[in-house]
Amino acid sequence: MNLTTAANIAQSGLATVSAETGVLSRNISASSDTSLYSRKIANVVTTSSGAQVVSVTRAYNQAVFENLLSATAANAAQAAISSGLDTLNQTIGDVASSSSTASSTATSPAALLAALTNALQTYSASPSDSSAAAGVVSAAAALARGLNSAATTVQQVRETADAAMASSVATINSLLGQFQSLNTQVVAGLATGADVTDAQDQRDETLKQLSQQIGLSTTTDSNGGMSIYADSGVTLFQGGNARTVSFAATNIFTAATAGNAVYVDGVAVTGASAPMPIASGGLAGNATLRDSATTTYQAQLDNIAGALINTFAESDQVGAGSKLPGLFTTPGAATLPATNAGLASSISVNASVDPSQGSNANLLRDGGISGNADYVYNPSGAAGYTGRISQLIGDLSATQSFSSAGGITTNASLGDYASASVSWLEGERSSASSQSSYQGARLSTASTALSNATGVNIDDQMSQMLDLERSYSASAQLLTSINTMFKSLVTALG
Question: Where are the domains of the chain?
Answer without folding.
Answer: 1-59+455-494, 73-171+247-439
